[in-house]
Each structure stands twice: as structure tokens, then as C-alpha cells.
Backbone:
């Protein structure tokens, strides 16, 4: 990888233009106003990332949606999968997973118009990520994985599979939308009818019990939800470092005015210095004016 082009400032019109799409006659997911920034980040990142991956790159989207997002008055925007599929410096291979069959059918039609060779798997990414990764047969090429669940659907095994697929060079970059509010909410439940299922959900997300002491403190009121959320995020980040990632950074995303609640934490993991710089620049451009990043 070589030096990263310098970029400055934020222009929201340009930000939206980068991911805006024409109505293609297929369904689009209705989304809230904060979604375009999250999509723009992927677009800001992928262009320079694809430029530094001189021998090719892979793109995995494990929660691909249907390829388009309808943000109401803000307009129609490419989804993460379509952003990945329409990069000028094309991905060597794309693998997309979507559990909902209507979404998967739309995704297939939409993506195959621009990338007929994309692998599109309908099903649960917790079961199908390895199959998707196996289509990335050059184990020395870099890769970028978008992992965008709605809540606590993604098991730690997905992360491990993605991080371990590249055997020569740095592991695939991961962009994870971590549901801090989901962890906070689920862990705080004390109703005995739900505790076992909730604990199982968290065990899957973290791949173990590292979260449990925090949940116990949260349940007895020694930690409030915000404090516990910070702890869950910290544990998740540490686990990414323990997988070997040298750079793990996160930033919160909030709902817009009127509803200031935390929506998720965006967590980026990479061991490549240039990829980290590119992500930093992308974050500054996509989220300028919002709260600063946490490291
Ligand atoms: C937040 S949306 C992703 C949106 C997408 N990144 C975009 O830009 O349009 C999450 C998607 O994951 C799908 N999904 C939920 N659980 C899943 C699972 N276990 N495996 C694969 N997809 C899943 C949902 O149907 C939904 O379309």
C-alpha cells in the first residue's frame, strides 16, 4: 500500500451526491436520517482503499439489505452493497449475504445489473460467512468487510472468520456497526423468563462471557446504562485487538435533533496504517459537525 491522498473539509451536498441513486424501479429500505452519513463513510473509504489495493481487493457485506435506502426527503441512496459493487476500481470479487428473502431477491436483481459475477447468498451470515469468504480464493489479497446488523444478530464467529481469512498480509479491514444500545438493553433485563435467552444472545455476540461482570454490575445498579455501554464497547474493541488488529477505533452515531439517542457505535478494525488514515479521513468527512471520535 502507498501514501493516502490528502482530503479536507466536509460538503454535505457532495457527501450525499456520492451515494445518491436514481429510482431503479426496485424496492428500497426506508431508513432514518442518520443513514446517509453511514453510507457516505463507506463511499469515502472505498475509493482510496481500492486505489491502494494495487493487485485487487475483496468486498464482503454480511448484512447486505436490498441494495438501496430510501431516506425520505433526503432522497434515495445506494446501500452498502451497491456502493461496494459500483466502485470505479472494481472489487476482484464481492460476496453479499442477506437473510430476508424479499431483500435478497431485490439485492440479486439490483447488484447483478452492475456486477453479474457478485456472489449473493440468501441466509444467515452466522452460517454462511465462511462459504462467502471461500469465494475469495486469493488468500493474499486485502479485503473490506461491512458488518451492519440491526441489533445483536452477529456472532463473534463471523468476526473471527473475516479476520482470519487473509493468510498473507494484514487481516481484512472490518467496519462493524456495534449495537451498544442493544447490549445495554438486553443485559439490563432482570425478568427471569428472559435472562437465559438474553445472556445467550450476548454470549454469541462476544463469543464468550467477558461481558458478564459488566451485566451483573448493571443489573444491581452499580453501573448505569451509559457506563455499562462504554464497558461493553471497550470489551468488544479489546477482543478485536486480541485477534491481532493494531488499530481499533470507534465513534458513536446519534439520531438527529429531537431524538438524541445513541444509535450504534461504528467500530473500525485494521492493521494497516494507510487504511487507518483513510478511515480517519472518511470519518471526518462523513461525520463532521457531530461528536468527536473515541479511540
Ligand atoms: C441494517 S440492515 C443493513 C443495511 C445495509 N447495510 C444497507 O446499506 O442497506 C440489516 C440487514 O441484515 C439483514 N439480516 C438480519 N439478520 C441477518 C443475518 N443473521 N444474516 C444476514 N442478514 C441478516 C436484515 O434483513 C437487514 O436487511
Residues:
Amino acid at each position: 500500500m502507498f501514501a493516502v491522498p490528502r482530503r479536507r473539509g466536509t460538503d454535505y451536498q457532495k457527501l450525499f451526491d456520492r451515494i445518491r441513486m436514481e429510482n431503479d424501479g426496485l424496492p428500497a429500505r426506508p431508513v432514518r436520517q442518520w443513514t446517509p452519513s453511514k453510507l457516505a463513510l463507506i463511499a469515502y473509504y472505498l475509493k482510496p482503499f481500492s486505489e491502494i489495493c494495487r493487485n485487487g481487493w475483496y468486498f464482503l457485506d454480511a448484512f447486505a439489505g436490498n441494495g438501496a435506502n430510501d431516506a425520505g426527503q433526503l432522497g434515495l441512496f445506494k446501500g452498502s452493497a451497491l456502493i461496494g459493487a459500483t466502485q470505479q476500481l472494481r472489487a476482484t470479487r464481492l460476496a453479499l449475504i442477506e437473510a430476508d428473502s424479499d431483500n435478497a431477491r431485490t439485492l440479486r436483481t439490483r447488484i447483478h445489473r452492475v456486477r453479474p459475477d457478485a456472489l449473493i447468498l440468501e441466509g444467515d451470515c452466522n452460517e454462511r460467512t465462511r462459504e462467502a469468504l471461500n469465494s475469495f480464493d486469493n488468500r493474499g489479497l486485502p479485503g473490506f468487510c461491512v458488518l451492519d446488523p440491526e441489533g445483536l444478530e452477529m456472532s463473534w464467529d463471523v468476526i473471527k472468520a473475516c479476520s482470519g481469512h487473509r493468510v498473507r498480509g494484514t487481516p481484512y479491514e472490518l467496519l462493524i456497526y456495534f449495537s451498544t444500545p442493544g447490549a445495554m438493553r438486553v443485559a439490563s433485563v432482570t425478568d427471569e423468563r428472559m435472562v437465559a435467552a438474553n445472556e445467550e444472545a450476548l454470549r454469541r455476540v462476544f463469543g464468550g462471557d467477558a461481558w458478564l461482570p459488566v451485566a451483573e454490575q448493571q443489573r444491581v445498579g452499580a453501573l448505569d446504562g451509559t457506563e455499562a455501554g462504554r464497558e461493553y464497547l471497550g470489551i468488544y474493541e479489546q477482543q478485536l485487538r486480541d485477534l491481532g488488529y493494531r488499530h481499533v477505533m470507534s465513534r458513536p452515531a446519534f439520531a438527529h435533533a429531537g431524538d438524541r439517542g445513541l444509535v450504534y457505535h461504528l467500530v473500525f478494525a485494521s492493521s494497516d496504517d494507510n487504511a487507518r488514515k483513510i478511515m480517519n479521513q472518511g470519518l471526518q468527512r462523513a461525520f463532521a459537525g457531530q461528536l468527536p471520535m473515541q479511540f
About this structure: Residues 35-52 form the longest helix (18 residues). The chain is about 45% helix and 15% strand. The chain has one domain: 12-287. Residues 1-8, 291-295 have pLDDT under 50 and may be disordered.
